[in-house]
Each structure stands twice: as C-alpha cells, then as structure tokens.
Specification:
The complex is a heterodimer of chains A (about 120) and B (about 180).
Chain A lengths: L2 E2 L1 H13 L5 E6 L4 E6 L8 H8 L7 E7 L6 E3 L15 H20 L5
Parallel strand pairs in A: 1-3
Antiparallel strand pairs in A: 2-3, 2-4, 4-5
Chain B lengths: L7 H23 L1 H6 L1 H4 L3 H22 L8 H25 L6 H28 L10 H23 L6 E2 L2
Classes of the chains: A alpha+beta (about 120), B mainly alpha (about 180).
Chain lengths: ~120, ~180
C-alpha cells in the first residue's frame, strides 16, 4: 500500500464539500510510495499537479497524478494527469490506480475506526 | 519623474508575484484541460474554469496594487503590459469555451483553440519578462527547465488528447468515500 496522510485526506474532503467548484490534486510519488492530496485552490499558485511536484522537490518523472472530485457525498478519484502522459495515455496503469484507491480506502477506514469520518 | 529605487524585499515580492502569475497560467495548461476532459465524470467544467480565471485576474490586479505601493506610480509602459496581461486572462475564457465543449465542436475549432492557448502562453511569458525588465527587477521571472519542458509537452499533446477523448469510452475511475 501507499502511504497517505489522513489529515490531507480529511482536508480535501472537507474543502470539496464546502466549495463544489473546487477539485483536489492527487499525486503518487513512486520512489517514496507516498500519496499526497491537496485542494486545487490550496496549491500555492494553483499550478496543478506540476506545481505540487515542484513544491515537494520531486521530479515529474517520479510522479503520477489523479484528480479528486466530490460531485455528491462521495469522493471520486479520476485517473487523469498530464504527469501520466509522458509514457502515453493520460491515465496511469490500472493496477497502480487500483492500489491508489485501495490505499485511500484503507486510510478512510482507519479514520472512521478512530471516530473521525470527516 | 524619478522613481525611488525598490527595496530588496519589494523586489523579491514582485519577482515572486510575477513567477506566481506564470505558474498560475501554467495551471491553465497542466490542469484546466483535464477538467474539460473529465466532463463525463465531473459534469460542467465551466464553474471551475471561471473560478480559476477570476483568481488569475485577481493576481494580476494584485501585481498592479503592489506596483503602486511605496508611492511607486507604475509607468505607462508597465500599465500597458498589465492591461495586456488582463486581456490574455480574459481570452482564456474563449479558449476554454471550446475545450469545455470539445465533444461537439469541430476538429478545426479545437485545433485553433489549442494553438491559441500556445500563443497565449508564449505571450504571457514574454509580457512577464518584459514587466520584470521595465519595473526593473534584477532577475526575470521564470519556471524551472523541467516545468517549462513539461508544459511544452502538454501543449504538444493537447489536441490529440481532446481528439482521443471524443471517441474513447468513459475511463474506469474509482469512487472514494
């Protein structure tokens, strides 16, 4: 599984609930096996996936991306980023994305078990 | 009128703001089109695009306000560049009208919109560099080489991505929580 910070997850969920026009930026840093999430409007200069990569001091080649949306009550992860496109399509490999989803679900389950479902 | 020299802090603030506008505009290349491409999952992309365009324009107005700080009245040349930058932010609306409706506009219109975005990006970079020289700042605003190359690659692939999305089935995305 990839590492996820539950606070980031909660923050994105709340921010997208508060502002339906906002979206979330999701990054997977492959060498660190780490997932990071941020509301788009909280990315310092709103530069999207690319700015987040730069902010963390990572290289675009090391990262894959996705979009987080909350069209209704549930969060939806969209497998789409220009970071993924360097090897062809805009989406990351299905197996990798499934692992991203499982990691996020596990994070959510952990939060719910601690009594903070967000 | 002779203007007082900028303090180092003021120079740094202005450099950061010029780079911030460049980065923000870069987001219009790296991220906004994805929202249009995800129309099937996200619905109408226009509220997001409009919100971001307004925010970009606010940043340009912030630059103007910062330039008038410390009684530094911007020169005519600077004001002209600021006005052109604002117009470019407004022109993004037209480009993204095509992207938001990429599923039903003609290929020719789509291609023109991608070319327009490329042209706007080049113009924005030039105007920000020019502003840096006119203010004047010791260093021009710029992105890292990796970021510049990434944005160029995105612009190169954008038309094909929109074209592919017209025929591809909805992607397999995941519900979260």
């Amino acid at each position: 599984m990839f590492t996820v910070n539950p606070d980031e997850f909660r923050h994105v969920r709340e921010a997208l609930g508060d502002d339906p026009a906002n979206l979330g930026v999701g990054l997977l840093h492959l060498p660190g096996e780490r997932l990071v999430l941020r509301p788009f409007n909280d990315v310092r200069h709103r530069g999207g996936h690319l700015e987040m990569v730069h902010e963390y001091g990572w290289l675009p080649d090391e990262c894959l991306g996705f979009i987080v949306a909350r069209p209704a009550r549930e969060l939806v992860m969209i497998n789409l980023s220009q970071l993924n496109a360097r090897s062809g399509p805009l989406f990351m490999a299905h197996a990798t994305f499934r692992k991203v989803l499982l990691s996020l679900r596990q994070c959510w389950a952990g939060m719910a078990a601690c009594g903070s479902p967000g | 009128m002779v203007q007082a020299p900028l303090t180092t802090q003021h120079e740094t603030d202005l450099e950061d703001l010029l780079t911030a506008i460049m980065t923000h505009f870069g987001g219009a290349i790296d991220f906004w089109p994805l929202v249009c491409l995800s129309r099937h999952e996200l619905g109408d992309p226009v509220p997001f695009i409009d919100c971001q365009r307004i925010s970009l324009n606010e940043r340009i107005q912030e630059l103007r306000a910062r330039l008038t700080l410390e009684e530094q009245e911007p020169s005519e040349a600077v004001l002209e560049q600021l006005a052109k930058l604002s117009r470019m932010a407004a022109e993004l609306r037209e480009v993204f009208d095509y992207f938001a409706n990429a599923h039903r506009v003609s290929q020719g219109d789509l291609e023109t919109a991608v070319m327009k975005l490329r042209q706007l990006w080049q113009d924005v970079c030039k105007r920000l560099w020019l502003l840096g020289a006119l203010i004047p700042l010791p260093r021009p605003p710029r992105l890292t080489l990796e970021r510049e190359e990434h944005l160029q690659a995105v612009l190169d692939g954008l038309f094909d991505q929109f074209l592919a999305a017209r025929t591809a089935p909805p992607s397999a995305n995941g519900k979260g929580h």
